[in-house]
Amino acid sequence: MTGIITPPPDASRPVVVVNADGSRPVVVVNADDYGLSPGVSQGILALIRQGRLSGTSCMTATPYWPEHATWLAEVADQADIGLHLTLTDQEPAGPCPALAPSGRFGSVGDLMVRALTGRLMGAAIQADLTAEIDRQLDLFEAHAGRAPSHVDGHQHVHLLPGIRGLVLDAVARRYPAGSVYVRDCSEPIPAVLARGVDSVKALIIATLARGLAAAAARRGIPTNRGFRGVYDFGPGRDFPALMAKFLEPARDRALIMVHPALPDEVLAGLDPVVASRQVEQAYLAGPAFAALLDRAGVRLGRLLG
């Protein structure tokens, strides 16, 4: 959609983009890590039911996925539900003798080093990656009973050299053109700097994503138009203030990544940012978030309608 800028009614309100048809811009607020633990999945489901999320990305190689996938049936028409491709810090969905010879993926730092130094391009590792991408997509379809609405990567692994092309090829091979989108984590450098939220981290991710949208378009794969939500999850962060920054400027089909959860013992044993997840959960469920969306002049929606 083509947008036009209209002046705010008063100086306290942000500049608002209005689509050419007069509608408010659609923003996808997508919760990552569905299936990581019961508390993560239950928290995300509660927010979708409440109309506070318009997407979630699912980890299908976890032991919780088969059961948690069935919970999504009631909200399947309310949100984008896609694959959160996971290639770090967990057991693969099947044998990966070249990529994960110990039977467990390594850290994201290790994977990035291997990707950026060309060490994922060998034939055996490429075969492992291709098979694992297909296995995680197979698990999504088998338990969700449908194709994913989108594909992205846990810790943004789908952006990495040696992985990006395989993800795009799998989506193009398995699904009709235009029916499944891939998350584009690029954002213009001036926008990242103006936002001023963990700019170095956000710029690294945006740089890794450079060229993804064009590569996807060549395969007939849609992408989002802007990516926000990067911050360091440190204690004491003012998440409401961060969300206000992530919504400005309003842009149609932008995607904001969030990580809400209800607390549970499983998550506490897996994740160092449990407290931040709880803060996100509480804010997204509360009235202040709904008021923020109204002030920003946007509405939550699914990327492809």
Describe this structure in words.
The protein has 305 residues and is an alpha/beta fold. The chain has one domain: Glycoside hydrolase/deacetylase (TIM Barrel, Alpha-Beta Barrel). It is built from 12 helices and 10 strands. The strands form 2 sheets. Strands 3, 4, 5, 6, 7, 8, 9 and 10 form an 8-stranded parallel sheet that branches. The protein has a two-stranded antiparallel ribbon with strand order 1-2. Helix 2 (65-71) links the parallel strand 4 (55-58) and strand 5. The longest helix has 22 residues, at 123-144. The relative contact order is 0.18. The model is unreliable at 1-16 (pLDDT under 50). InterPro entries: Glyco_hydro/deAcase_b/a-brl, YdjC-like. Pfam families: YdjC (PF04794).
What attributes characterize this protein structure?
alpha/beta, disordered N terminus, 305 residues, TIM Barrel, 10 strands, 8-stranded parallel beta sheet, 12 helices
What are the SSEs and their pairings?
Layout: E1 3-6, E2 16-19, E3 26-34, H1 38-50, E4 55-58, H2 65-71, E5 80-85, H3 108-116, H4 123-144, E6 150-153, H5 164-174, E7 181-182, H6 189-195, H7 199-208, H8 212-218, E8 227-228, H9 239-246, E9 254-258, H10 265-270, H11 274-285, H12 287-296, E10 299-300
Parallel strand pairs: 3-4, 3-9, 3-10, 4-5, 5-6, 6-7, 8-9
Antiparallel strand pairs: 1-2
